[in-house]
Design goal:
8 helices; 2 strands; elongated
Length: about 180
Amino acid sequence: MLQSALASNVFMISQLLYRSFPDNLLVKLFGVWEPYQGSSQFFPTSGLAYYMTPPRSFVNTLKDPIHFVLYVAYMLTACAVLSRTWLDVSGSGPRDVARELREQQTVIAGYRDTSMYKELKRIIPTAAVVGGVIIGILSISADLLGAIGSGTGILLAVTIIYNYFETFAKEQAELGGVGVAGM
């Protein structure tokens, strides 16, 4: 989701600059925008913005492999870096998790309180980066398979629906109603 917001901001700024200064070399490096065939919607045809957009189809991937490779590299790097950064921003980092475990008087079997932080510091950032890369791969796959909407949008929708389901199941269990097993 953060990656999608980053890309949207780059696209908006690039398009505004291109409409105002279409002959400027630096603006062209940022992105050249032209209307898509039979449409009034503008798409980037070159520049940074072009390489941040997914190929329109699998055939376009074969026609322009450099675009595909740069898009994949951008997506995977952005997802991994933003996922790692999210740890520090959201309070899910190793120090925060170690503090929460200490407050709950929970320990990891075989680790002392001080060495638990070191172990979490080793595991949590790696898991975040790997998770970010996997999310990037899922998003790229959805984009290439021509899913309706973007891969990022689909992942966001699935996450929201799953959270609603978890909330519903939890409320049903608390009320003694039909549980998840009864569904």
